[in-house]
Amino acid sequence: AAAAAAAAAAAAAEAAEREAAAAQQREAAEAKARQEAAARREERKAAFRASRLRSISEAAARHCLPLFDPTVSTGPPLPSVSKALGATHTTLSAFLVPWGAEGARPCSPPLREQIETISFLHSRGLLHGMMMLPTASLPQTLSGSITSAAALVVIADSGCSVWKNLQDEQLTSGTKFSEMSTRTIPLEEAQKLVSSPLKFWAGEPTSATEAGHSENQSETVCVVLRTPHYPSNSDLDKAALLTVVTSLQEMGVSVAGMRVIFPDERSAANAPSAGLRARVSFDRPALLLALRGPSALTIWRSILGPADPVLARRTDPMSLNARFGGETRSEALSPVPPSNAARAQADVVWAFGGRCQLDGIDSDDDVAADDDVDVHLQCLEASDPRRLPALALAPLQRVAVELRARVSFAKAASALSGMLVRLGHVVSLCGTPEGLRAVAEREGGGMFLSQCRLCDEPALGGGSRSSSTSTSRVEIPPARWTGLQAADEGSRSEIMETLECREVEVPSDLGLRVEGRLSAKADFLEEACRLGEPEVVVLGLRPQASVAAGSSLLQEVLLSLLDQFGTGRSSSIDVGGVVDLIGVRALDFSMINRQELPAGAAGALDSFRDYAQLVKRVSEEATRGWWSPSQPGRSPTIFLCLRGDSLISRLSQFFIKEWKLAPATGGEVLCTTTVMAARQAYRTLFGGLSSPSFAETVPRTNLGSLARFNPLEGPTLEDALFPNKISSDLTVAVLIPPKLDLALFRVLTSCEQQEFTLASAVMWGGLEERLARTIFEQEVSDGHLSDSDWSTFCQSVGCSQSSEPDANFKCISLALARPQAVKKLAQLCGHGDPSLNQQQLKASLRIGKDRIFNGVRCATSPEVAMKWLSSLSSSDRQVFAAPEKGGAPPRSLSIEESERFLECSLIVFALPPDIDLGLVRVIRQLQTSLGEQGLHTVGLVASDRVSLSNTASTVGLDLLEMNDRLLASLRSWGEHRLQHLSPLATTAGGGAEAVLELAGEGRVLVVACEGPVAVERGRQACSSTAAALHNEDPTSKHVLWYTSPTASDAAGDVAWMFPSLHGAKHHIV
After folding, report:
1. What is the pLDDT of residues 606-620, one digit of tens each?
2. Distance (Å, rounded) from C-alpha 642 to C-alpha 634?
């Protein structure tokens, strides 16, 4: 029985255990089922939320709501009032501060006292709520006395001692602070306005500005300023906001929104960018600014400077972080902005956009249709009148801006890039007689010009800046950037120059007109350029992805060209080598109907070539249509017109071999490569230009100046740039010891190679003081000599201070004719110091030991050349003092008894006027032949009437008179000598009569030589000269020459033709 009872008990216990285990299993299954059901419900809710959020985002995109972001707009709202409002209102008051000029257009720039009012309140920790709202969104009962476009609703602590002390403080404008807080409003109304839900747009969402207009180049950036440690009496803290706003206004950026937030932990954690999360703390208020303008993000990053204030003070001392930051990155005035505009926009949505709470629309129902969500979103906005716009934006307007100043090439990069960045969507930019005119589309039109420095350099990082911005209590480091930088030796300095711009009437054609007239071919134009006429090149810059990118490319191109062809060149070595910027043109071809573009204009633009075409990598068709933007919103196509000496070849070589600019080698920069292509491009783009839009790159006192040698003169600018005729000019060179013969040979050789013609040549025994002074003053002006070198210089040119000149001194003056004669000869001579030319590896005609005894002096400007030639012409009158007809010989030749073994001889060469052979080759060959015979020249005079007749110089008339005097002297000599000729007078050169008859045509060379057996050796030198000339040019057989037949004849010939000999043992008495 006991065993049976035990067994029954065990069975019962086992059954109980099985039943308990089964119950436990059932409970676990039920719990699991509940968990799975809950998970399925959460998944359905999450899927519904995601679907609803996606639908709302699509609806927001259809409505073009710029202040909506799927992530940010569904987060917690930002608290706009401090906790003090919830505790007590006894010490708080509210008032309105106008933002902008009274009665001004929408979004006009704020006044200085308005900015200072908020800055003082913020720096002292008195703000318990603030929001900038458009005046139109305020209740009529509150905004009745406000006529500005926007107003600040301010809630401040007016019961503390700091507030009371602030009432009597005077702002820098002269206004007392108490006058700015007189527009009081009820605290409850202010709290309601500041705490109102915000819209997803500013104004109507269908307007061009907010609908994401394809040509609107404005950007919005959210900025959070460092919160001072309250209470703060730091003058720097007071001036921070004022400096920020004024600096931004000068850069063309406005403050479109401003508010103070008091974030909690959730809203602070929801900040999209790392910079906001690092700066926004849930236990301290934050001042938020919405910056609006073209390239606002780039401009803000540049003026803010490095994030580390200590580093900023070393590398960019005038940046905002350097001036107003503390010691660590956390004490910077503002954190580093986002890296691109899309991320910056998310910050703006977080700070100034509305919120759409999804919790209220969660459901277990199926996902609603997109149309239902769309209707819900519209109803959400329309049915909530409390929503206010937190941004005040102006409508997109067209504006024409004119710069009434002709800036130089050195300042063009800053001025042009500044205009492009600040004007927004640039429709066109072209030159005017006064300067530049631009037509653009920009929010608010031209109202930003009142505060903006339109032409200041947009990239402000680095260097020092200058301004007048300051406070009444402390001298703040300057923030205004009104200068354009210039390179100084070893340092950079500021040139304080403000370029004033003003708004003008928008032209009817928007400045988009281009010409289609084809220019007639002119072979002489290429010939003129070959002879030294300055060449024109038109550069083209492809449209870039944004105006900021286009502005940056333009700045890089201009600066690199300036360094290569402008002020970066050594003007004393590269004479006339500086390039001038003639004009600029920017066109948005997307606004020109392709069918309306003249055929000639399209052909001219397609003639541009890029780097790949210059190096023959692609075909000439590869760049067809390069000037047309591929999509809207890109920067305009920019054209630059340059003028310089041999510019086409110089620029092509620079393009191919030296230009390391990535956009240039990447095909973003193109240029014309022929004279005719440049002329057609100029006529198409710059045909309406009446004068250069830019000043000369360097002043005309600089040897590198192109305008010094080739001023733009003509009926029109096109005629001046592309002349329709080729005319010769005159220049002068004075050859001086110690290596006179070598200098003469080198100069004549180079002149023949460079197609100079010799108009006149005279050997002198030294220069008159008047002429020497003229040459010396030019050399001092060019920087080759100093005033203290006068006495030594006089020795070098034989200008004797005593009454008796040095009989052994001789020099030669050469009057040379050629198109661009002055510039070409100056380029051949190079710097006045021969050693410097050698150091710079510059081929030069200068020879000698130093800058004073340098072998060659030449005119370095047309005005100086005319002055020299005029002085030489007046001095020539004493060279040909021939007797009247039938008179006796006025002079005779004498020599010391010990030197009687030496003879003199007269040589005359006469050239026909219709052959190409010139006096340059004859003199060079004759000098060589005389040297081979052991003879040296002691007298020389030459004149070419044909060369003088082809020059356009008025001084050529004086030289023609000299030619007449020389011919008269020859005729007088001939009439006398023909009565006493010996039988040997008829020489192989043609005889005296034939020589004199041909010399009457005006191309004649007369030489007196000295040496042993000079008569015979002179005849041999003439024979070898004639033979050498005939071998080089068969037409030289028509050249006739005469040499004295006997020593006695030679004595009479030389004494008759030359009043004095130079460097000779013989003397004229």
Report:
1. 999 999 999 988 888
2. 25
